[in-house]
Amino acid sequence: MTVSRNQKNVIVTGSAGFIGFHTAMRLLREGYAVIGIDNVNAYYSQKLKRDRLAHLAGMPGWTFHETDLTDRERIAELVRVTDPHCVVHLAAQAGVRWSIENPWAYLDANLTGFLSILEACRHQGRGHLVYASSSSVYGANTKLPFAVGDTVDHPISLYAATKKANELMAHTYSHLYGLPTTGLRFFTVYGPWGRPDMAMWKFTAAMIAGTPIELYNHGQMKRDFTYVDDVVESITRLVERPATPDPDWSGDAPNPATSKAPWRVYNIGNHTPVEVRYVLELLEKLVGRKTEIRLVGMQPGDVPATFADVEALTQAVDFKPSTPIETGVKNFVEWYRRYHGV
Q: How confident is the model over 204-216, as a mean pLDDT?
């Protein structure tokens, strides 16, 4: 196993995934040594995951281990030997709707796998854990924008419940062992190398194939679409900002976003909700093809709108995601055409 002595080592789990791939690429370009971990499962195209890994292969400072997070002894060994400056934990079983049909997959990946990471990090005795949470933790909340100071006690999908559980598990380890943990609530991330199960890819593929597109909630949906480069910028800045205790935190009036332990959560969103219908119109113009739309009802576990309050993130790292949806969609379509040769 290659371990850097002249660079800061960062472990990135889920490095064959969408956000993990972009994060690993950015950290390598910033001069970190990156140790990628991924089990390259078949939730979606394994070819796409292998193609992402092929772009990372050969980059200075990159090593990769095809390992499942539930193999806790292997994970503990990787953390012990590499002694990372930071662990960026982005591996998870994603998908709100899939969690309704396949609940056990979420127990293994999102809870058991996360515990493997927590245990490995606390035995390391130093470093910083940055991990992926989700905007889905806001669940049944209807006050917009969603703020990290809001309570998140009413999840409406098992996926959301596992992400809320991750935040609670992280807090426990921050409290018991002084492990700095930073949770990132991602809002509808999109961009080049994205996931085939998400709207941007599904809409584009349907347009090119000439097949109908379903719009949920009868087309009345808004999402805080967040461009992947902005997400990666946020992660990269937070890698060097370990969570610290909040000196003003009080158990009499507990702030849900901070703690007397070194624990934090941040929204990572574009703070600009966009109608899904508008995204569809942008895609039609860029692809050059109209599509048949079928209006269907709200799907189980879904919410009509998301909207991120990112004030806490801006205060912490002097940055807020701001890529216009028009720019991001254009970049995605151009990449999609190149990748598929269409």
A: 93
